[in-house]
Amino acid sequence: MSAAAVGRISSYLSAWGTLSGVNGEGAAGPSELFEVLADEYARDILVAADRRPMTAKALSDACDASLTTVYRRIALLEEHGLVKKHRSVGPGGTHRSKFETTLEGLHVDLSDGELSLSVETRDELADSFTSLWEDMRGDG
């Protein structure tokens, strides 16, 4: 997607859009999310970390990006709820972080003159499945 196209979409969304379903700390606007997804390194990290949880070093190798670039993009993706960090303690007590994509779907809807953007994450799908299962068992 060209930078000009992203700019036009971001401008339109800033003026008219709504955003729902993002698991982030702050309420991100649609234009912010499109800007994040317009970044090639951010997209590469999302795709690589979707295959399996990966360390920053492994993401750096997979995405042909410096560790600094990877950490900056991971911070941005975490802020928008698109990546989740898993921490573990390895042999010898070393701490290790792996990152996994949480993004499952991105939906843009235009109806009644309003453009809306919704983001579906794995956590939301798991919560929905749990609720459905509890309803079927009569626990809910």
N-to-C span: 44 Å
Name the structural class.
alpha+beta
Shape: flat
- The helix-strand sequence is HEHHHHEEEEH
Runs in which pLDDT lies below 50 for 5 or more consecutive residues are 10-27
What's the total helix number?
A: 6
Largest sheet: 3 strands, mixed
Question: Would you report the number of β strands?
Answer: 5
Indicate the proportion of strand residues.
Answer: 15-25%
* Proportion of residues in helical segments: 40-55%
Q: Biggest sheet: strands side by side, in what order?
A: 1-5-4
What can you tell me about this protein's structure?
The strands form 2 sheets. This protein has a 3-stranded mixed beta sheet with strand order 1-5-4. About 13% of the residues have low confidence. By secondary structure, it is α+β, with helices and mostly antiparallel strands. It contains 6 helices and 5 strands, in the order αβααααββββα. The longest helix is centred in the C-terminal third of the chain and has 16 residues. Helix content is 51%, strand content 24%.
